[in-house]
Design a protein that fits this description.
single chain; alpha+beta; OB fold (Dihydrolipoamide Acetyltransferase, E2P); 2 helices; 6 strands
Length: about 150
């Protein structure tokens, strides 16, 4: 079985290209966190080469940018080519078969900032920022009737 599923951040600027046959393709690197940690306790990442074709390539290019969190399903494909110096270079790529747009980096940063503001307000005695919850029943348990015709003014 040759199947991969992973979530990571797009690590390179996206450049949509077209083949000589007119097929859209997109090649980019993706950073995926590993369970391993460095000396400082920070998660280590690996970088994988990804390749998407046709509509998947166009959608990733249209809706994502460097730093965005993306879920992919893919299969591994190996290949080789000759470098400009005449050396044989082996390459392994993840050919994308499915994508999940998880969240743009800007949105995640915004959420983290909002959480930090909430935490500071809570620590300062300001409480948390919660939306008010309104009751829809009266004291005797009957539902509130919002018919405007019965309003006396």
């Amino acid at each position: 079985m040759n199947n991969f599923s992973g979530i990571g951040r797009i690590a390179t600027d996206l450049v949509l290209k077209k083949s000589s046959a007119g097929m859209a393709f997109l090649s980019f690197n993706m950073a995926i966190k590993t369970p391993k940690k460095n000396k400082n306790g920070e998660a280590l990442s690996i970088f994988i080469n990804c390749l998407a074709f046709d509509v998947r390539a166009e959608n990733i290019y249209k809706f994502c940018s460097k730093g965005d969190l993306l879920g992919i399903t893919a299969y591994l494909q190996d290949g080789s080519y000759e470098s400009k110096d005449g050396y044989k270079v082996n390459k392994i790529e993840f050919i994308i078969t499915g994508i999940d747009f998880i969240s743009p980096k800007k949105e995640v940063q915004k959420q983290e900032k909002e959480k930090a503001v909430e935490a500071r307000a809570g620590a300062a005695g300001g409480g948390s920022f919660r939306k008010p919850q309104y009751e829809t029943t009266t004291n005797n348990g009957t539902a509130f009737d919002d018919d405007d015709e019965e309003i006396p003014f």
